[in-house]
Amino acid sequence: xxxxxxxxxxxxxxxxxxxxxxxxxxxxxxxxxxxxxxxxxxxxxxxxxxxxxxxxxxxxxxxxxxxxxxxxxxxxxxxxxxxxxxxxxxxxxxxxxxxxxxxxxxxxxxxxxxxxxxxxxxxxxxxxxxxxxxxxxxxxxxxxxxxxxxxxxxxxxxxxxxxxxxxxxxxxxxxxxxxxxxxxxxxxxxxxxxxxxxxxxxxxxxxxxxxxxxxxxxxxxxxxxxxxxxxxxxxxxxxxxxxxxxxxxxxxxxxxxxxxxxxxxxxxxxxxxxxxxxxxxxxxxxxxxxxx
Length: 292
Prior knowledge:
Elements: E1 7-8, H1 9-17, H2 43-58, E2 65-69, H3 75-82, E3 88-93, E4 106-109, H4 112-118, E5 122-129, E6 138-142, E7 148-153, E8 160-165, H5 169-178, E9 187-190, H6 192-202, E10 205-217, H7 219-223, E11 233-236, E12 239-241, E13 250-252, E14 255-256, H8 257-263, E15 269-274, E16 284-291
Parallel strand pairs: 2-3, 2-5, 3-4, 5-10, 10-14
Antiparallel strand pairs: 1-7, 6-7, 6-9, 7-8, 10-16, 11-12, 11-13, 15-16
Helix pairs in contact: 4-6, 6-8
Main location: mitochondrion
Keywords: Methyltransferase, Mitochondrion, Transferase
GO molecular function: methyltransferase activity
């Protein structure tokens, strides 16, 4: 096997998501047992989805749909079905349909970023809970003069290593606008791939609302230095571990939720708020956007 001289963080991360090193598609059984903050179990999210669905129903006389992106074991859709939700329920996930899922729930196995391009014309609600934080991104670390350097992955150890100064114009532009690197040794993640994913997901909606709930932050917090240490980490057995891009743990980083929202250029309204009742007091933030 040829070992590359250089491996970008996003490419290595993608291997652990959808590739040969996938944490989600590996042989070790249920990957969702490793996560301790299942927001889908919150009564608050059920109520919010219900409210958004009711609002969507005011704008159409046709059938309504709820699409759960990154549906996992189908917990949110199962609770919606048990609540008697009057809408078609669709789950999208990399993993196959859960064997005990309510037969009235539809399921699409695949990468939601690709499925979204084929699933359009939705009237209703699209939900992405703890989805965007799994989308691979690049990251940088500033040197002692505040110049951002790329964070790369060692092709052999699969651990982080510091690379050359960042030169990519698009990535620098994203940082300059959304997360300026202004302090020595600070770290920042570049959220442009998450922005593209959210734009694609919301593109499924003809009319209705999109809801993202995730580990996240806003520009004001980033400018204040709250997240200067960066947020890239690994998860295994319900706890944080050193992020190693070999598929042995789930890689995640907080979402620049305001940047993602700005990428959905069709949105009529946008509301961002902290999720104060998040399980385990996690750093959850919600993004609600409406589309007509």
